[in-house]
Write a structure and sequence with these properties.
binds zinc ion, 2 strands, alpha+beta, single chain, two-stranded antiparallel ribbon, 4 helices, 89 residues
């Protein structure tokens, strides 16, 4: 029976082939979802996919792009949003 903290599904289970040829069960952290555009749902580039607890200690430049709506919208949707806001005036 695995240890109590290994019984939960917080960590994912991976079988790794070790040099002796035997496959061993290894527990690893789950992959976090990539940040997506709020409008078109495409994956945003230049933004690291980190867990919430690790995001606290990362710099602002790793969490967003230096652009208006950076880190929230992709470049195409940001362009549309800016043009819309100018036309409203
Ligand atoms: Zn978009």
């Amino acid at each position: 029976m695995p240890r109590p903290n290994k019984r939960s599904r917080t960590l994912r289970r991976i079988f790794v082939r070790v040099p002796s040829g035997v496959s061993k069960l290894v527990y690893k952290a789950r992959k976090t979802a990539r940040i997506k555009c709020a409008d078109c749902k495409t994956v945003l580039h230049g933004i690291s996919a980190l867990s919430v607890s690790k995001l606290r200690n990362t710099t602002n430049s790793q969490k967003k792009v230096e652009r208006k709506y950076g880190g929230n919208l992709c470049h195409k949707c940001a362009r549309k949003r800016i043009i819309q806001s100018v036309r409203k005036e």
